[in-house]
Amino acid sequence: MLARGRGSFRGKIAFTLAVPAFLGAYLLLHRGPTLGSTQSGNCCGPDHPEAPRELDFPYYSLRDGFSSQLQLVSDSPKPIGLTIAIRDLAGDTLLTSAMIQPQAKLAFDLRSLLTQLGADPGGAFAEGSVAVYFVGTIMPVVGQITMTNAVARLVHESEMVENDPGRTDIPAVLNGVWWNLGGGRDALIMVCNTSGLPVMADVFLDFFGTRHPSAALSFRPHETKVLSITQLLAELNVSPVQAPQGGITIIQRGGVPKLIAQGKVLDPVSGFSTTLRFPSQESQPTSTLHASGLPIGTPSPVGIDGNPSPFAGLGTFVPHLVAPNLLATPQTVTVTVEYPTKPAHSSTTPPAAPLLSKEGTKGWSAGEDTGTTIPPRLLAAYVASDTGRITLPPFTVGPYGTEDVALDSVLSQLPGPVPYSSLRIQYSGPPASLVAELASVEEQKDLVVDSKLQDEGWGWAGSGANPWHLDDETDSIVFLTNAGDKDVPIGFEVTANNSHYYLTKLRLAPHETRAINLRELRDSRRPDFKRNTIPAAATDGSVSWIRLDDVPVTGRVVMVQRHGGVASNYDCCTCLCPASYMRCDITPHRPRPWVRTSPCNAPAWLHTRTAMVRTRTRT
Protein backbone atom coordinates (compact mmCIF):
# COMPACT_ATOMS: atom_id res chain seq x y z
CA MET A 1 0.00 0.00 0.00
CA LEU A 2 2.46 2.53 -1.19
CA ALA A 3 2.58 5.44 -3.52
CA ARG A 4 5.34 6.35 -5.88
CA GLY A 5 6.04 9.73 -7.29
CA ARG A 6 8.85 12.08 -8.09
CA GLY A 7 9.62 15.60 -7.13
CA SER A 8 12.41 18.10 -7.57
CA PHE A 9 14.61 20.18 -5.36
CA ARG A 10 18.23 21.15 -5.25
CA GLY A 11 19.31 19.59 -1.96
CA LYS A 12 21.71 21.51 0.27
CA ILE A 13 23.16 20.55 3.61
CA ALA A 14 23.96 23.36 5.99
CA PHE A 15 26.48 22.91 8.75
CA THR A 16 25.12 25.98 10.52
CA LEU A 17 27.14 27.19 13.48
CA ALA A 18 26.75 30.73 14.85
CA VAL A 19 29.78 32.68 13.46
CA PRO A 20 31.52 35.37 15.48
CA ALA A 21 32.19 38.50 13.47
CA PHE A 22 35.94 38.34 14.01
CA LEU A 23 36.10 34.92 12.35
CA GLY A 24 33.60 35.33 9.52
CA ALA A 25 34.49 31.91 8.13
CA TYR A 26 32.19 30.09 5.74
CA LEU A 27 32.68 26.80 3.99
CA LEU A 28 30.98 25.97 0.71
CA LEU A 29 31.78 22.42 -0.30
CA HIS A 30 29.94 21.25 -3.39
CA ARG A 31 29.23 17.57 -3.70
CA GLY A 32 29.39 15.75 -6.98
CA PRO A 33 26.36 14.21 -8.67
CA THR A 34 24.70 11.50 -6.64
CA LEU A 35 23.48 8.13 -7.80
CA GLY A 36 19.96 9.46 -7.78
CA SER A 37 20.63 12.59 -9.79
CA THR A 38 22.54 10.63 -12.42
CA GLN A 39 20.05 7.83 -12.87
CA SER A 40 17.02 10.09 -12.73
CA GLY A 41 18.17 11.91 -15.84
CA ASN A 42 19.61 15.01 -14.12
CA CYS A 43 16.15 16.42 -13.43
CA CYS A 44 17.39 19.64 -11.80
CA GLY A 45 18.72 22.87 -13.18
CA PRO A 46 18.11 25.11 -16.20
CA ASP A 47 17.59 22.13 -18.53
CA HIS A 48 14.31 21.47 -16.71
CA PRO A 49 12.46 24.81 -16.41
CA GLU A 50 8.90 25.21 -15.24
CA ALA A 51 6.48 23.57 -17.65
CA PRO A 52 3.00 21.99 -17.67
CA ARG A 53 2.93 18.85 -15.48
CA GLU A 54 0.43 16.04 -14.95
CA LEU A 55 -0.08 13.45 -12.22
CA ASP A 56 -2.44 10.55 -12.94
CA PHE A 57 -4.09 8.30 -10.35
CA PRO A 58 -5.69 5.18 -11.86
CA TYR A 59 -8.56 4.70 -9.42
CA TYR A 60 -10.72 5.95 -6.57
CA SER A 61 -13.84 4.38 -5.05
CA LEU A 62 -16.77 5.57 -2.95
CA ARG A 63 -18.70 2.32 -3.30
CA ASP A 64 -19.31 -0.38 -0.69
CA GLY A 65 -18.63 1.88 2.29
CA PHE A 66 -15.28 3.20 1.03
CA SER A 67 -14.02 6.76 1.39
CA SER A 68 -11.25 8.09 -0.84
CA GLN A 69 -8.78 10.76 0.16
CA LEU A 70 -6.46 12.45 -2.31
CA GLN A 71 -3.31 13.55 -0.46
CA LEU A 72 -0.78 15.83 -2.11
CA VAL A 73 2.56 17.03 -0.75
CA SER A 74 4.53 20.00 -2.08
CA ASP A 75 8.30 20.00 -2.32
CA SER A 76 8.34 23.51 -3.79
CA PRO A 77 9.52 26.74 -2.10
CA LYS A 78 6.54 28.64 -3.52
CA PRO A 79 2.77 28.14 -3.81
CA ILE A 80 1.54 26.12 -6.80
CA GLY A 81 -1.86 26.38 -8.42
CA LEU A 82 -3.51 23.02 -9.13
CA THR A 83 -6.29 21.91 -11.45
CA ILE A 84 -7.89 18.65 -10.31
CA ALA A 85 -9.84 16.50 -12.76
CA ILE A 86 -12.17 13.84 -11.29
CA ARG A 87 -13.38 11.32 -13.87
CA ASP A 88 -15.99 8.58 -13.67
CA LEU A 89 -15.37 5.16 -15.20
CA ALA A 90 -16.66 6.32 -18.59
CA GLY A 91 -14.23 9.25 -18.65
CA ASP A 92 -16.70 12.08 -17.98
CA THR A 93 -14.84 14.84 -16.13
CA LEU A 94 -15.42 17.40 -13.37
CA LEU A 95 -12.82 20.13 -12.75
CA THR A 96 -11.87 22.12 -9.69
CA SER A 97 -8.89 24.24 -8.65
CA ALA A 98 -6.79 24.56 -5.51
CA MET A 99 -3.56 26.07 -4.22
CA ILE A 100 -0.90 24.11 -2.35
CA GLN A 101 1.49 26.05 -0.12
CA PRO A 102 5.27 25.51 0.04
CA GLN A 103 6.28 22.18 1.63
CA ALA A 104 2.66 21.69 2.68
CA LYS A 105 0.25 18.75 2.74
CA LEU A 106 -3.11 19.18 1.01
CA ALA A 107 -5.88 16.59 1.46
CA PHE A 108 -9.21 16.23 -0.35
CA ASP A 109 -12.08 13.99 0.67
CA LEU A 110 -13.40 13.04 -2.76
CA ARG A 111 -16.95 12.41 -1.55
CA SER A 112 -17.17 15.95 -0.14
CA LEU A 113 -15.43 17.42 -3.17
CA LEU A 114 -17.83 15.74 -5.61
CA THR A 115 -20.80 16.94 -3.57
CA GLN A 116 -19.48 20.52 -3.75
CA LEU A 117 -19.16 20.14 -7.52
CA GLY A 118 -22.81 19.09 -7.79
CA ALA A 119 -22.15 15.41 -8.59
CA ASP A 120 -23.77 12.38 -6.97
CA PRO A 121 -21.05 10.43 -5.09
CA GLY A 122 -23.33 7.38 -5.16
CA GLY A 123 -24.01 7.61 -8.90
CA ALA A 124 -21.73 7.59 -11.92
CA PHE A 125 -18.92 9.30 -10.00
CA ALA A 126 -18.87 6.66 -7.25
CA GLU A 127 -15.64 5.35 -8.80
CA GLY A 128 -13.20 6.48 -11.44
CA SER A 129 -9.79 8.15 -11.80
CA VAL A 130 -8.12 11.45 -10.90
CA ALA A 131 -5.61 13.70 -12.66
CA VAL A 132 -3.79 16.75 -11.24
CA TYR A 133 -2.41 19.48 -13.53
CA PHE A 134 -0.05 22.35 -12.67
CA VAL A 135 3.02 24.26 -13.87
CA GLY A 136 6.32 23.46 -12.19
CA THR A 137 9.63 21.68 -12.36
CA ILE A 138 10.13 17.89 -12.17
CA MET A 139 8.37 17.11 -9.80
CA PRO A 140 7.33 19.61 -7.09
CA VAL A 141 4.05 17.92 -6.14
CA VAL A 142 3.57 14.23 -5.33
CA GLY A 143 0.78 12.20 -3.75
CA GLN A 144 -1.55 9.23 -3.64
CA ILE A 145 -5.18 8.27 -3.12
CA THR A 146 -6.00 6.19 -0.04
CA MET A 147 -9.28 4.24 -0.01
CA THR A 148 -10.56 3.14 3.42
CA ASN A 149 -13.55 1.24 4.74
CA ALA A 150 -13.26 1.77 8.50
CA VAL A 151 -16.15 -0.57 9.38
CA ALA A 152 -14.79 -3.52 7.39
CA ARG A 153 -11.18 -2.55 8.28
CA LEU A 154 -10.12 -2.45 4.63
CA VAL A 155 -7.63 -0.13 2.96
CA HIS A 156 -5.82 0.08 -0.35
CA GLU A 157 -4.01 2.77 -2.31
CA SER A 158 -3.82 4.26 -5.77
CA GLU A 159 -0.33 5.28 -6.84
CA MET A 160 0.44 8.35 -8.90
CA VAL A 161 2.22 8.25 -12.24
CA GLU A 162 4.03 11.24 -13.68
CA ASN A 163 2.64 11.91 -17.16
CA ASP A 164 3.92 15.30 -18.31
CA PRO A 165 3.22 16.65 -21.80
CA GLY A 166 6.11 15.57 -23.98
CA ARG A 167 7.41 13.00 -21.52
CA THR A 168 5.87 10.25 -19.43
CA ASP A 169 6.70 7.56 -16.89
CA ILE A 170 3.85 5.32 -18.02
CA PRO A 171 5.30 1.88 -18.85
CA ALA A 172 4.70 0.36 -22.28
CA VAL A 173 3.96 -2.99 -20.61
CA LEU A 174 1.99 -3.40 -17.37
CA ASN A 175 3.06 -6.42 -15.30
CA GLY A 176 1.29 -7.33 -12.06
CA VAL A 177 0.30 -10.22 -9.83
CA TRP A 178 -2.74 -11.59 -8.01
CA TRP A 179 -2.64 -13.81 -4.93
CA ASN A 180 -4.65 -15.28 -2.04
CA LEU A 181 -7.78 -15.94 -4.12
CA GLY A 182 -10.45 -18.43 -3.10
CA GLY A 183 -12.99 -18.44 -0.30
CA GLY A 184 -14.94 -15.68 -1.99
CA ARG A 185 -11.93 -13.40 -2.47
CA ASP A 186 -11.39 -11.83 -5.89
CA ALA A 187 -8.61 -9.67 -7.30
CA LEU A 188 -9.73 -6.56 -9.15
CA ILE A 189 -7.45 -4.79 -11.62
CA MET A 190 -8.31 -1.17 -12.47
CA VAL A 191 -6.88 -0.03 -15.82
CA CYS A 192 -7.13 3.63 -16.79
CA ASN A 193 -6.63 5.33 -20.15
CA THR A 194 -4.93 8.62 -19.23
CA SER A 195 -5.29 10.13 -22.70
CA GLY A 196 -8.03 11.73 -24.77
CA LEU A 197 -7.54 9.10 -27.49
CA PRO A 198 -8.96 5.57 -27.83
CA VAL A 199 -6.59 2.72 -26.94
CA MET A 200 -6.47 -1.03 -27.58
CA ALA A 201 -4.54 -3.48 -25.37
CA ASP A 202 -3.89 -7.21 -25.14
CA VAL A 203 -4.16 -9.12 -21.85
CA PHE A 204 -2.30 -12.28 -20.76
CA LEU A 205 -2.65 -14.38 -17.61
CA ASP A 206 0.29 -16.46 -16.36
CA PHE A 207 -0.48 -19.65 -14.40
CA PHE A 208 0.11 -23.41 -14.68
CA GLY A 209 3.52 -22.59 -16.20
CA THR A 210 1.93 -21.08 -19.32
CA ARG A 211 1.02 -17.63 -20.63
CA HIS A 212 -2.69 -17.59 -21.53
CA PRO A 213 -4.13 -14.88 -23.83
CA SER A 214 -7.33 -13.24 -22.66
CA ALA A 215 -9.82 -11.02 -24.47
CA ALA A 216 -8.41 -7.73 -25.81
CA LEU A 217 -9.43 -4.46 -24.16
CA SER A 218 -10.82 -1.41 -25.95
CA PHE A 219 -10.69 1.94 -24.10
CA ARG A 220 -12.52 5.14 -24.88
CA PRO A 221 -10.79 8.45 -23.98
CA HIS A 222 -10.09 8.64 -20.22
CA GLU A 223 -12.06 5.44 -19.60
CA THR A 224 -11.28 3.18 -16.63
CA LYS A 225 -12.05 -0.54 -16.73
CA VAL A 226 -12.33 -2.77 -13.66
CA LEU A 227 -11.19 -6.32 -14.45
CA SER A 228 -12.11 -9.29 -12.26
CA ILE A 229 -9.41 -11.97 -12.17
CA THR A 230 -12.04 -14.52 -11.13
CA GLN A 231 -14.07 -13.66 -14.23
CA LEU A 232 -11.02 -13.76 -16.52
CA LEU A 233 -10.10 -17.18 -15.13
CA ALA A 234 -13.66 -18.42 -15.62
CA GLU A 235 -13.44 -17.47 -19.29
CA LEU A 236 -10.49 -19.88 -19.44
CA ASN A 237 -12.43 -22.57 -17.53
CA VAL A 238 -10.24 -22.17 -14.42
CA SER A 239 -11.41 -21.49 -10.86
CA PRO A 240 -9.65 -19.27 -8.29
CA VAL A 241 -9.01 -22.38 -6.18
CA GLN A 242 -7.01 -23.85 -9.07
CA ALA A 243 -5.04 -20.64 -9.65
CA PRO A 244 -4.99 -18.72 -6.33
CA GLN A 245 -1.96 -16.76 -7.52
CA GLY A 246 -0.61 -15.76 -10.90
CA GLY A 247 0.62 -12.96 -13.09
CA ILE A 248 -1.18 -10.54 -15.40
CA THR A 249 0.38 -8.65 -18.30
CA ILE A 250 -1.32 -5.83 -20.24
CA ILE A 251 0.33 -4.64 -23.47
CA GLN A 252 -0.91 -1.54 -25.27
CA ARG A 253 -1.09 -1.74 -29.04
CA GLY A 254 1.22 0.92 -30.46
CA GLY A 255 1.66 4.61 -29.80
CA VAL A 256 2.87 6.48 -26.75
CA PRO A 257 2.04 4.49 -23.56
CA LYS A 258 -1.27 5.71 -22.13
CA LEU A 259 -2.47 2.96 -19.74
CA ILE A 260 -1.85 2.81 -15.99
CA ALA A 261 -3.15 0.21 -13.55
CA GLN A 262 -3.69 -0.57 -9.89
CA GLY A 263 -5.14 -3.68 -8.25
CA LYS A 264 -6.62 -4.86 -4.97
CA VAL A 265 -7.54 -8.03 -3.11
CA LEU A 266 -10.21 -7.48 -0.44
CA ASP A 267 -11.97 -9.81 2.01
CA PRO A 268 -14.60 -7.96 4.07
CA VAL A 269 -15.21 -11.06 6.21
CA SER A 270 -11.66 -11.38 7.55
CA GLY A 271 -10.52 -7.79 7.00
CA PHE A 272 -7.79 -8.87 4.58
CA SER A 273 -6.84 -6.12 2.11
CA THR A 274 -3.79 -5.58 -0.04
CA THR A 275 -2.75 -3.36 -2.95
CA LEU A 276 -1.47 -4.76 -6.26
CA ARG A 277 1.05 -2.69 -8.21
CA PHE A 278 2.26 -2.45 -11.79
CA PRO A 279 5.84 -1.06 -11.62
CA SER A 280 7.63 0.22 -14.70
CA GLN A 281 10.56 -1.66 -16.15
CA GLU A 282 12.65 1.51 -15.89
CA SER A 283 12.33 1.41 -12.09
CA GLN A 284 14.04 -2.00 -11.98
CA PRO A 285 17.61 -1.57 -13.33
CA THR A 286 19.01 -4.47 -11.24
CA SER A 287 17.79 -7.87 -10.01
CA THR A 288 17.73 -6.89 -6.31
CA LEU A 289 14.68 -5.56 -4.44
CA HIS A 290 14.37 -4.21 -0.92
CA ALA A 291 11.45 -3.57 1.46
CA SER A 292 11.61 -1.36 4.54
CA GLY A 293 10.01 -1.66 7.99
CA LEU A 294 7.79 -4.77 8.09
CA PRO A 295 6.41 -6.46 11.22
CA ILE A 296 7.59 -10.05 11.64
CA GLY A 297 6.52 -12.55 14.27
CA THR A 298 5.12 -10.96 17.42
CA PRO A 299 6.78 -7.53 17.45
CA SER A 300 8.72 -6.94 20.65
CA PRO A 301 6.85 -4.91 23.29
CA VAL A 302 10.10 -3.02 23.93
CA GLY A 303 12.26 -1.93 21.04
CA ILE A 304 16.01 -1.44 20.96
CA ASP A 305 15.52 2.16 22.14
CA GLY A 306 13.52 1.10 25.21
CA ASN A 307 10.17 1.96 23.63
CA PRO A 308 7.49 -0.26 22.12
CA SER A 309 7.78 -1.41 18.53
CA PRO A 310 5.50 0.57 16.18
CA PHE A 311 3.68 -2.74 15.63
CA ALA A 312 3.61 -3.94 19.26
CA GLY A 313 0.24 -5.26 20.36
CA LEU A 314 -1.14 -5.60 16.83
CA GLY A 315 -0.75 -9.39 16.64
CA THR A 316 1.61 -11.94 15.12
CA PHE A 317 2.75 -11.41 11.55
CA VAL A 318 4.08 -13.64 8.76
CA PRO A 319 5.58 -11.90 5.69
CA HIS A 320 4.35 -13.25 2.36
CA LEU A 321 6.47 -12.85 -0.77
CA VAL A 322 4.49 -13.33 -3.98
CA ALA A 323 6.84 -13.67 -6.94
CA PRO A 324 5.59 -14.09 -10.54
CA ASN A 325 8.23 -15.12 -13.09
CA LEU A 326 7.79 -13.25 -16.39
CA LEU A 327 10.21 -15.58 -18.20
CA ALA A 328 9.65 -18.81 -20.09
CA THR A 329 12.57 -20.26 -18.13
CA PRO A 330 12.86 -20.85 -14.35
CA GLN A 331 14.73 -18.54 -12.02
CA THR A 332 15.93 -18.64 -8.43
CA VAL A 333 14.97 -16.23 -5.64
CA THR A 334 16.96 -15.63 -2.44
CA VAL A 335 15.51 -13.76 0.54
CA THR A 336 17.52 -12.08 3.32
CA VAL A 337 15.74 -10.84 6.45
CA GLU A 338 17.37 -7.91 8.25
CA TYR A 339 16.39 -6.77 11.74
CA PRO A 340 17.77 -4.44 14.46
CA THR A 341 19.52 -6.11 17.39
CA LYS A 342 20.91 -3.51 19.80
CA PRO A 343 21.94 0.15 19.78
CA ALA A 344 25.52 0.89 18.99
CA HIS A 345 25.57 3.04 22.16
CA SER A 346 23.96 2.81 25.59
CA SER A 347 20.30 3.86 25.65
CA THR A 348 20.86 5.96 28.79
CA THR A 349 23.94 8.00 27.83
CA PRO A 350 24.65 10.06 24.73
CA PRO A 351 27.13 8.91 22.08
CA ALA A 352 30.71 10.12 22.22
CA ALA A 353 29.86 12.74 19.56
CA PRO A 354 26.36 13.92 20.55
CA LEU A 355 24.00 14.39 17.64
CA LEU A 356 21.73 17.06 19.09
CA SER A 357 22.86 20.64 19.42
CA LYS A 358 22.56 22.76 22.55
CA GLU A 359 20.01 25.57 22.36
CA GLY A 360 20.11 27.86 25.40
CA THR A 361 20.12 25.53 28.41
CA LYS A 362 18.48 22.56 26.70
CA GLY A 363 19.78 19.80 24.47
CA TRP A 364 23.26 18.50 23.73
CA SER A 365 26.37 20.27 22.59
CA ALA A 366 29.57 18.75 21.31
CA GLY A 367 32.08 18.09 24.05
CA GLU A 368 29.84 19.33 26.86
CA ASP A 369 28.58 17.17 29.71
CA THR A 370 25.22 18.59 30.85
CA GLY A 371 24.60 15.83 33.40
CA THR A 372 21.43 14.68 31.66
CA THR A 373 20.68 11.99 29.13
CA ILE A 374 18.95 11.71 25.77
CA PRO A 375 15.42 10.40 26.34
CA PRO A 376 15.32 6.73 25.32
CA ARG A 377 12.31 7.34 23.04
CA LEU A 378 14.44 9.75 20.95
CA LEU A 379 17.68 7.83 20.93
CA ALA A 380 16.58 5.59 18.06
CA ALA A 381 16.28 8.65 15.85
CA TYR A 382 19.96 9.47 16.28
CA VAL A 383 21.90 6.35 17.25
CA ALA A 384 22.87 3.66 14.79
CA SER A 385 21.98 0.08 15.66
CA ASP A 386 23.50 -3.29 14.89
CA THR A 387 21.67 -5.29 12.26
CA GLY A 388 21.12 -9.04 12.26
CA ARG A 389 20.76 -10.88 8.94
CA ILE A 390 19.21 -14.24 8.11
CA THR A 391 19.44 -15.59 4.56
CA LEU A 392 16.86 -18.23 3.74
CA PRO A 393 17.42 -21.17 1.36
CA PRO A 394 16.75 -20.13 -2.26
CA PHE A 395 13.53 -21.21 -3.94
CA THR A 396 12.73 -21.66 -7.63
CA VAL A 397 9.94 -20.01 -9.60
CA GLY A 398 9.07 -21.98 -12.71
CA PRO A 399 8.42 -20.62 -16.22
CA TYR A 400 5.49 -18.18 -16.13
CA GLY A 401 4.89 -19.40 -12.59
CA THR A 402 4.04 -17.55 -9.38
CA GLU A 403 5.12 -18.56 -5.88
CA ASP A 404 3.36 -17.37 -2.75
CA VAL A 405 6.04 -17.98 -0.11
CA ALA A 406 5.11 -17.55 3.55
CA LEU A 407 8.30 -16.65 5.41
CA ASP A 408 7.22 -18.31 8.64
CA SER A 409 10.37 -20.45 8.63
CA VAL A 410 12.41 -17.40 9.60
CA LEU A 411 10.50 -16.91 12.86
CA SER A 412 12.30 -19.79 14.59
CA GLN A 413 15.68 -18.36 13.48
CA LEU A 414 15.17 -14.93 15.04
CA PRO A 415 16.97 -14.43 18.38
CA GLY A 416 13.64 -13.39 19.91
CA PRO A 417 10.92 -10.82 19.26
CA VAL A 418 12.17 -7.98 17.06
CA PRO A 419 10.47 -4.57 16.62
CA TYR A 420 10.44 -4.69 12.79
CA SER A 421 12.37 -6.07 9.84
CA SER A 422 13.43 -5.30 6.29
CA LEU A 423 13.76 -7.77 3.43
CA ARG A 424 16.20 -8.06 0.55
CA ILE A 425 15.14 -10.16 -2.46
CA GLN A 426 17.56 -11.24 -5.19
CA TYR A 427 16.45 -13.12 -8.30
CA SER A 428 18.61 -14.83 -10.91
CA GLY A 429 16.90 -13.51 -14.03
CA PRO A 430 17.59 -10.20 -15.78
CA PRO A 431 16.23 -6.95 -14.31
CA ALA A 432 12.43 -6.57 -14.38
CA SER A 433 11.91 -10.29 -15.11
CA LEU A 434 10.21 -10.77 -11.73
CA VAL A 435 7.46 -8.51 -10.31
CA ALA A 436 7.06 -9.18 -6.61
CA GLU A 437 4.56 -8.20 -3.93
CA LEU A 438 5.39 -8.29 -0.23
CA ALA A 439 2.87 -8.13 2.60
CA SER A 440 3.11 -8.98 6.28
CA VAL A 441 -0.15 -10.71 7.26
CA GLU A 442 -1.39 -10.88 10.84
CA GLU A 443 -2.29 -14.48 11.70
CA GLN A 444 -5.96 -13.56 12.32
CA LYS A 445 -5.91 -11.89 8.86
CA ASP A 446 -7.47 -8.69 10.16
CA LEU A 447 -4.40 -6.57 9.42
CA VAL A 448 -2.06 -6.57 6.42
CA VAL A 449 1.00 -4.31 6.29
CA ASP A 450 2.08 -3.97 2.66
CA SER A 451 5.51 -2.86 1.58
CA LYS A 452 6.38 -1.84 -1.94
CA LEU A 453 9.58 -3.52 -3.10
CA GLN A 454 12.08 -1.01 -4.47
CA ASP A 455 14.95 -1.85 -6.76
CA GLU A 456 18.23 -1.00 -5.04
CA GLY A 457 19.64 0.50 -8.23
CA TRP A 458 16.73 2.84 -8.91
CA GLY A 459 18.02 6.39 -8.55
CA TRP A 460 14.68 7.89 -7.51
CA ALA A 461 14.54 5.73 -4.38
CA GLY A 462 16.82 8.00 -2.40
CA SER A 463 14.55 10.77 -1.20
CA GLY A 464 10.96 11.21 -0.19
CA ALA A 465 8.15 13.65 0.56
CA ASN A 466 5.20 12.08 2.38
CA PRO A 467 2.15 13.09 4.41
CA TRP A 468 1.71 12.17 8.07
CA HIS A 469 -1.20 12.22 10.51
CA LEU A 470 -1.61 11.77 14.27
CA ASP A 471 -4.73 11.32 16.38
CA ASP A 472 -5.86 9.29 19.38
CA GLU A 473 -5.82 6.10 17.29
CA THR A 474 -3.25 6.83 14.57
CA ASP A 475 0.54 6.88 14.69
CA SER A 476 2.88 7.79 11.83
CA ILE A 477 6.30 6.15 11.64
CA VAL A 478 9.05 6.94 9.15
CA PHE A 479 11.12 3.90 8.17
CA LEU A 480 14.48 4.48 6.50
CA THR A 481 16.64 1.58 5.27
CA ASN A 482 20.27 1.71 4.21
CA ALA A 483 20.61 -1.08 1.63
CA GLY A 484 24.31 -0.41 1.11
CA ASP A 485 27.56 -1.51 2.72
CA LYS A 486 28.68 1.85 4.15
CA ASP A 487 27.30 4.57 6.40
CA VAL A 488 25.09 7.18 4.78
CA PRO A 489 24.05 10.60 6.16
CA ILE A 490 20.41 11.62 5.83
CA GLY A 491 18.84 15.07 5.61
CA PHE A 492 15.48 15.01 7.42
CA GLU A 493 12.74 17.66 7.74
CA VAL A 494 9.28 17.65 9.31
CA THR A 495 6.79 20.35 8.32
CA ALA A 496 3.60 21.17 10.25
CA ASN A 497 1.54 24.36 10.61
CA ASN A 498 4.10 26.30 8.54
CA SER A 499 6.87 25.26 10.97
CA HIS A 500 9.98 23.34 9.92
CA TYR A 501 11.83 20.94 12.17
CA TYR A 502 15.11 19.18 11.37
CA LEU A 503 16.89 16.11 12.66
CA THR A 504 20.60 16.81 12.81
CA LYS A 505 23.43 14.53 11.75
CA LEU A 506 21.15 11.59 11.09
CA ARG A 507 23.17 8.63 9.76
CA LEU A 508 22.29 5.06 8.87
CA ALA A 509 24.76 2.23 9.41
CA PRO A 510 25.16 -0.42 6.67
CA HIS A 511 21.92 -2.42 6.23
CA GLU A 512 20.30 -0.55 9.11
CA THR A 513 16.59 0.24 9.23
CA ARG A 514 15.63 3.18 11.44
CA ALA A 515 12.11 3.81 12.74
CA ILE A 516 11.30 7.44 13.64
CA ASN A 517 8.00 7.86 15.48
CA LEU A 518 6.63 11.30 14.63
CA ARG A 519 4.39 11.42 17.71
CA GLU A 520 7.39 10.92 19.98
CA LEU A 521 9.37 13.47 17.99
CA ARG A 522 6.55 16.00 18.36
CA ASP A 523 5.83 15.34 22.03
CA SER A 524 9.50 15.49 23.10
CA ARG A 525 9.44 19.31 22.62
CA ARG A 526 13.18 19.20 22.02
CA PRO A 527 14.28 22.10 19.78
CA ASP A 528 16.34 21.59 16.67
CA PHE A 529 19.43 23.63 15.81
CA LYS A 530 17.23 26.57 14.79
CA ARG A 531 15.32 26.37 18.11
CA ASN A 532 12.23 25.11 16.31
CA THR A 533 9.95 22.37 17.61
CA ILE A 534 7.09 20.51 15.99
CA PRO A 535 3.96 22.37 17.19
CA ALA A 536 2.45 20.50 20.14
CA ALA A 537 -1.04 20.61 18.63
CA ALA A 538 0.06 19.53 15.15
CA THR A 539 -1.86 16.52 13.81
CA ASP A 540 -1.00 16.75 10.11
CA GLY A 541 1.98 17.66 8.03
CA SER A 542 4.65 16.40 5.69
CA VAL A 543 8.03 14.80 6.18
CA SER A 544 10.91 14.98 3.70
CA TRP A 545 14.21 13.17 3.63
CA ILE A 546 17.18 12.82 1.29
CA ARG A 547 20.24 10.60 1.28
CA LEU A 548 23.52 12.51 1.13
CA ASP A 549 25.82 9.96 -0.43
CA ASP A 550 25.88 7.40 -3.25
CA VAL A 551 24.37 4.65 -1.11
CA PRO A 552 21.02 2.95 -1.91
CA VAL A 553 18.41 4.07 0.63
CA THR A 554 14.67 3.43 0.69
CA GLY A 555 12.06 4.93 2.97
CA ARG A 556 8.36 5.23 3.64
CA VAL A 557 5.78 6.49 6.13
CA VAL A 558 3.46 3.93 7.76
CA MET A 559 0.24 5.17 9.39
CA VAL A 560 -1.18 2.62 11.82
CA GLN A 561 -4.66 2.83 13.37
CA ARG A 562 -3.98 0.74 16.43
CA HIS A 563 -7.57 -0.30 17.18
CA GLY A 564 -8.90 0.02 13.64
CA GLY A 565 -6.87 -2.82 12.17
CA VAL A 566 -5.74 -0.60 9.28
CA ALA A 567 -2.26 0.33 8.08
CA SER A 568 -1.62 2.80 5.22
CA ASN A 569 1.73 3.34 3.59
CA TYR A 570 3.19 6.31 1.73
CA ASP A 571 6.31 6.31 -0.39
CA CYS A 572 6.43 9.36 -2.66
CA CYS A 573 9.90 10.03 -4.03
CA THR A 574 11.33 13.38 -5.04
CA CYS A 575 14.03 14.27 -7.52
CA LEU A 576 17.40 13.53 -5.91
CA CYS A 577 19.48 16.54 -6.92
CA PRO A 578 23.16 16.95 -5.97
CA ALA A 579 23.57 18.15 -2.39
CA SER A 580 25.94 20.84 -1.16
CA TYR A 581 27.57 21.60 2.16
CA MET A 582 26.57 25.25 2.48
CA ARG A 583 28.53 26.69 5.36
CA CYS A 584 30.14 26.15 8.71
CA ASP A 585 29.94 28.86 11.39
CA ILE A 586 31.70 28.98 14.77
CA THR A 587 30.98 30.77 18.02
CA PRO A 588 33.37 31.14 21.00
CA HIS A 589 32.65 29.17 24.18
CA ARG A 590 34.42 28.56 27.45
CA PRO A 591 37.32 26.10 27.18
CA ARG A 592 36.54 22.41 27.45
CA PRO A 593 39.70 20.30 27.70
CA TRP A 594 37.90 17.20 26.41
CA VAL A 595 36.95 18.91 23.12
CA ARG A 596 39.54 17.34 20.84
CA THR A 597 38.34 18.39 17.41
CA SER A 598 36.01 20.96 15.89
CA PRO A 599 34.50 21.49 12.44
CA CYS A 600 36.03 24.10 10.09
CA ASN A 601 39.48 23.54 11.64
CA ALA A 602 38.44 25.74 14.58
CA PRO A 603 40.61 26.01 17.70
CA ALA A 604 39.80 23.43 20.34
CA TRP A 605 38.58 26.09 22.80
CA LEU A 606 35.70 27.07 20.51
CA HIS A 607 32.33 25.46 21.20
CA THR A 608 30.72 24.24 17.98
CA ARG A 609 27.38 22.84 17.02
CA THR A 610 26.42 21.26 13.73
CA ALA A 611 23.23 20.56 11.87
CA MET A 612 22.36 19.00 8.53
CA VAL A 613 19.47 20.68 6.80
CA ARG A 614 18.01 20.27 3.36
CA THR A 615 16.98 23.49 1.68
CA ARG A 616 15.43 23.88 -1.75
CA THR A 617 15.98 26.12 -4.71
CA ARG A 618 14.39 25.76 -8.11
CA THR A 619 15.68 27.01 -11.42
Brief account:
With 619 residues, the protein is mainly beta.
Residues in helix, %? under 10%
The global form is globular
User: How does the major sheet shape up?
Assistant: 6 strands, antiparallel
- The whole-number mean of residue pLDDT values reads 80
Tell me which oligomeric state these chains represent. Answer: single chain
Quantity of strands, as a count:
42
Distance between the termini: 33 Å
SSE diagram, text form:
Layout: E1 8-9, E2 12-13, E3 29-30, H1 35-39, E4 51-61, E5 67-74, E6 80-88, E7 93-100, E8 105-109, H2 110-116, E9 127-136, E10 141-149, E11 154-159, E12 161-162, E13 173-178, E14 186-193, E15 199-207, E16 210-213, E17 217-219, E18 224-228, H3 229-234, E19 246-252, E20 259-267, E21 272-276, E22 288-294, E23 317-324, E24 331-343, H4 376-379, E25 385-391, E26 395-397, E27 402-406, E28 421-427, E29 437-442, E30 448-451, E31 454-455, E32 463-469, E33 474-482, E34 488-496, E35 499-508, E36 513-517, H5 518-523, E37 540-547, E38 553-561, E39 566-570, E40 575-576, E41 580-581, E42 614-615
Description:
The protein is about 5% helix and about 40% strand. It has 5 helices and 42 strands. Strands 22, 24, 25, 26, 28 and 31 form a 6-stranded antiparallel beta sheet that branches. It is globular, with a radius of gyration of 24 Å. It starts with 7 loop residues before the first strand and ends with a strand.
Give me some keywords for this one.
disordered C terminus, five-stranded antiparallel sheet, single chain, six-stranded antiparallel sheet, 5 helices, 619 residues
